[in-house]
Amino acid sequence: MIPNVAPAPADSAEPTAAAVLPKALRQSAVKKFSGSKLFASPASVAGVIWLAVLVAASLTAPLWLPYKTEDQDFTAVLSGPTAAHWLGTDELGRDILSRIFASAAGTLGTSMITVMVAVGLGTTLAMLAAAAGDRVETVISRVTEVMMSLPGTVIILAVIGAVGTNIPLIMAILGVLISAGMYRVMLGQAKSLQSQLYVDAAKVDGVSTLGISLRHVLPGLANTIVVQSALIFAVGMLIQAGLAFIGFGPPIPEPSWGGMIQGASQNVYNAPWLMVPTGAVLALTVLSANAIGNALGKAPNATASHLPSAAARRRRAKAVAAIAAAAPAPNDSAKNTLSVCNLSVGVDSDGAGHGVRLVTDVSFDVEPGTVLGLVGESGCGKTMTALSLLGLLPSGVSVTGGQILWNGRNLAAATDKDMEGVRGREVALISQEPMRALDPMFTVGYQLTAAIRRLRGMGRAEAKAEALGLLEKVGIVDAARILKTYPHQISGGMAQRVAIALALSGRPRLLVADEPTTALDVTVQAEILSLLRGLVKDTGMSVVMVTHDLGVVADLCDQVAVMYAGEVVENGRTDSILDNPRHPYTLALLAADPHANHAADMPERLATISGQVPQPKDWPSTCRFAARCQFAGSACMVPVPLLPSGTGDGLVRCVKADELAVEGLDWVATDVPSHHVLNLVEAGTAPAGPAKAPAGLERRTVEKDHA
Ligand SMILES: Nc1ncnc2c1ncn2[C@@H]1O[C@H](COP(=O)(O)OP(=O)(O)OP(=O)(O)O)[C@@H](O)[C@H]1O
Known about the structure:
By secondary structure, the protein is an alpha/beta fold.
């Protein structure tokens, strides 16, 4: 009769996503369970409305109920619905409607006692056990195991025998019994949250154990707490009704749902209707609690994985259909050539068409055996562009226009099923953090052979030999030993090599590399770049390399697309762009890069670019870089198209590109203090620096960060 608490739902059992962003979690702990989620599904909306009506009607019952609960009408005993008694009467002629609503608040309120005791005690014990170490955990775990082994029904009946039918007390004791199950559910999550790096950081900062539990662990448990509360609430109601059914409800003549169902069951043959109203109200209330729990328990978008949710996939399918209908049929582009045309990516519209655009009209081509660098500051849309090539945009973000042509298909309009055939086999991904690609639970060998078998249909032995070969190919000397190790047993550089081997396991023709060297030290960076260069040369595959680092671009890339605020501002051959940049943003990136300045003419101070990349919602319709540009003027206050830059087949998005080229201007490293806010000044007043003559151009001086 007394159930253990249901296991945590799949989306809340794994705390790592929730654990990654504790600050965001704390900030959104309230927001997370607020309106948007509650009203996201029709079932939860109906549940909220039903519970609200029930509670309001019950609390105001004395004001509007047509009869008192004990009023008897012997002229209408066991009647069905009539004008006088809308839901009929019981065996004593009492009005069912009045009795149902009069007893609702008591039933719901006492069920809440169970929730508060079970969740409060279970969660507190779990946080205590997770924080206090093995000994305390052992003691608490043993005690809860004993509690779980006790026959709950017998205990409840014993309590009733000792203290009578004191419903609030019985429900509190029920809560204590359920708290043991709740403790088991919460302990694993609390321990995992306790082992997060930000908890270590908080300890280093001197935050107390209690502070850590309340500020860092509890918010991470919030999802499970809400879901479990809803389930326990429903269980509490059912148990309460069950007790009343067997005669341990509130004293007669006080009404209770269980008591009414029991009365109805005695007249089930001569007045079957009697069972319907109370049974339906109980069932609806239990269903409502579960629907609300399900809705609130959905994982928040902010911490969701890259892989889209089912709802996001449905939205994407719609967007895909729209794009497919709008885009012209792909022409027969050359084999293994990637051709991205006017790609736009945006946050899914909120229904009123307010989806923010994150990438606008990006175009580039990648020939087989070549490397394209996508370069730009953080937040310029490089990752969104790269992930759209694999159909791996995060939940809530989709391709909103354009084409991604690959071997005669438009990947922008491909369904998830189509993309499953492309990912890994034709297009693969390596990410900044190699550990994202590797599962800590399995050996390198297992993960590699599983991928090879899945993608290439090989047998076990053949796949193992192939895995060995792949590790050797990525420069791992003792490959046989590495195959037997777990990811945590190898270094970051080694892990990135393994991740590259994993990406190569399906023999892709295009590799999307999202900042693959950023997390590595300089020596290892050079090795990984050299490895990628060798792979491109040997296998003829092409690479889209996302990077902040112009050194990486110079080292590896044949072509570059410089991105700023979601659009390509300059593209072309790497040597043209590095030797002869045309866009002020490219000039600025080069001026700010220590590797791009030769030792001989290295300036005393490297240049900076004032301000930050604007948020996508703030992108102007004019030149997006104008607000930060040293050369901006009134001519820049118009939408700027990509036009031939005059250097090879490159394109540039700047109305002053030709003027800058003719004048031979450089981006200036200024000595203006960071707190000094400057406006556009006339040419010639610019601070001294390595610039060539700024004659004839309006120049924007920049803030200089002295930090
Ligand atoms: N899931 C998301 N929902 C909404 N906006 C997002 C999401 N992910 C990223 N963005 C926004 O999209 C814009 C482009 O982000 P993106 O990650 O592509 O930039 P990036 O150039 O790759 O930066 P970084 O080098 O830091 O990865 C940013 O303004 C970012 O805040």
